[in-house]
Amino acid sequence: MKVSVQSAEIKLSELVDAALAGEDVVISKDGRPAVRIVPIQSRRFKIGMMQGQFGEGPDFFEPMSEEELALWEGDA
To answer: For strand 25-29 and strand 2-4, is the pairing parallel, antiparallel, or unpaired?
Structure first.
């Protein structure tokens, strides 16, 4: 679909819907193609997508050993 800038000003919502539906939308200025309306590719965030890809880390809720506590407090 090719439209002029003047027509695009009036029909912007329709042009966006057409682009989202997969239609090639080109806006021309002074009779020459100037810009193309294309949909933005959305990426859905998936919780746990990295699950199982890392080794076991420290358990931060587990009490520290006496040696670790001494290092942490600067008594070593």
So the answer is: parallel
H/E run at residue 11 = helix 5-20
Structure-token pair, residue 48: 């746990």
Distance CA 6, CA 12 (A): 10
CA distance 5 to 22: 20
Could you tell me where the beta strands, DSSP code E, fall in 5-45?
25-29, 32-37
- C-alpha distance from residue 61 to each of 1, 48, 52 (Å): 60, 21, 20
Q: What is the pTM of this model?
A: 0.54
pLDDT per residue as tens digits for the range 12-32: 999 999 999 999 999 999 999
Phi and psi at residue 18, to the nearest 5° = -65, -40
Q: Using the structure block, give the residue that is written with the tokens 């819907």.
A: 17
